[in-house]
């Protein structure tokens, strides 16, 4: 419009030579292009400014508590895997609903605990609460020390959690098990054997897929199967030697054979003072546990040995077992455990 208006003005209202008129129109077209160039650059600057706004927003959000000298636990801590929870409530935001409601229980050192419940019952929220990853109320004692008074780095480094999809780093298998080069090869190979990797490879028909400490691992473990990643995560937990090990539906995405190998390793290779909390996807995974916790809507409905819970008429665990296709096997596993 600017160029057309200028052309009409120069042709009909000004007595200019053809050279001057052509030169003026040429400069007008260039000026219009320059305006578009400035608009494009200003728009790009505004878009890039969104990144600065995001960074500023992250700097202003509430941060986790920083380590303080008073929060350093004793050097011997934790000496056992005892966990005591008193009136624990949790929520994901300050104004959000409670996902855990006045939960109380005690786990002795060395006990194997299974956690079951339907979707949304609070199983994963319980594990996040123990690690102080969400807002909590109440008291949690880990080896007689209240976790709310312990620095987060000290607390989380003393608890090992194996998620449903464990993360692996790009590098060798040795670097994934021991990223700070603190242990020798004998201990690392022992952890792999204890986790069941060698047993799984012996049962596999693939000769070219044997893993060793020098095997290359892609980013995220993309060159490994889900079962192999879970076994490596278990081996990493064995190397760390934590007194509290949490499995958050860690075997839900793998086949039954690999699941059996991992469960056998957990039963036979973990030391007697290591407490194991298993958030179950398959009931067979936890039916031989020392105790089973049944959650519903963020509350503990039942917490006792499998054999005792199955004897409760109308009990929640009993109803879950009766609905299962492996009902007879589950009852047999619970009775074989023999703890009431």
TrEMBL record:
It holds the Pfam family ABC_tran. It is a multi-pass membrane protein. GO terms for cellular component: membrane. GO terms for molecular function: ATP binding; ATP hydrolysis activity; ATPase-coupled transmembrane transporter activity. Its main location: membrane. Residues 83-322 form the ABC transporter domain. InterPro entries: AAA+_ATPase, ABC_transporter-like_ATP-bd, ABC_transporter_C-like, P-loop_NTPase. Keywords: ATP-binding, Membrane, Nucleotide-binding, Transmembrane, Transmembrane helix, Transport. It comes from the Eukaryota. It is found in: Membrane. PROSITE patterns: ABC_TRANSPORTER_2 (PS50893). This is ABC transporter domain-containing protein. It comes from Tetrapyrgos nigripes.
């Amino acid at each position: 419009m600017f160029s057309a208006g200028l052309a009409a003005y120069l042709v009909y209202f000004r007595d200019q030579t053809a050279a001057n008129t052509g030169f003026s129109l040429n400069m007008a077209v260039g000026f219009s292009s320059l305006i578009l160039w400035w608009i494009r650059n200003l728009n790009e600057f505004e878009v890039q400014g969104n990144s600065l706004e995001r960074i500023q927003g992250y700097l202003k959000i509430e941060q986790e508590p920083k380590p303080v000298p008073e929060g350093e636990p004793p050097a011997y801590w934790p000496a056992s895997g005892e966990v005591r929870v008193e009136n624990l409530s949790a929520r994901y935001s300050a104004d959000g609903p409670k996902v855990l409601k006045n939960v109380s229980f005690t786990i002795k050192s060395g006990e194997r605990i299974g956690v079951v419940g339907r979707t949304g019952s609070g199983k994963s929220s319980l594990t996040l609460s123990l690690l102080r990853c969400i807002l909590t109320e109440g008291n949690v004692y880990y080896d007689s020390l209240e976790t709310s008074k312990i620095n987060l780095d000290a607390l989380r480094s003393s608890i090992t959690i194996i998620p449903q999809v464990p993360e692996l780093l790009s590098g060798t298998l040795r670097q994934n098990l021991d990223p700070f080069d603190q242990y020798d090869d004998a201990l690392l190979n022992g952890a792999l054997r204890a986790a069941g990797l060698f047993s799984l490879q012996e049962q596999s028909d693939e000769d070219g897929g044997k893993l060793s400490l020098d095997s290359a691992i892609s980013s995220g473990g993309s060159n490994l199967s889900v079962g192999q990643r879970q076994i490596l995560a278990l081996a990493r937990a064995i190397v760390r030697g934590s007194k509290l090990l949490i499995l958050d539906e860690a075997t839900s995405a793998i086949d039954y054979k690999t699941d059996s190998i991992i469960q056998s390793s957990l039963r036979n290779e973990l030391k007697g003072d290591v407490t194991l909390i298993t958030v179950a996807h398959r009931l067979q995974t936890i039916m031989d546990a020392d105790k089973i916790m049944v959650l519903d809507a963020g509350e503990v409905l039942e917490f006792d040995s499998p054999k005792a819970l199955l004897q409760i008429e109308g009990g929640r665990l009993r109803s879950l077992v009766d609905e299962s296709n492996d009902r007879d096997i589950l009852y047999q596993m619970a009775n074989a455990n023999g703890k009431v």
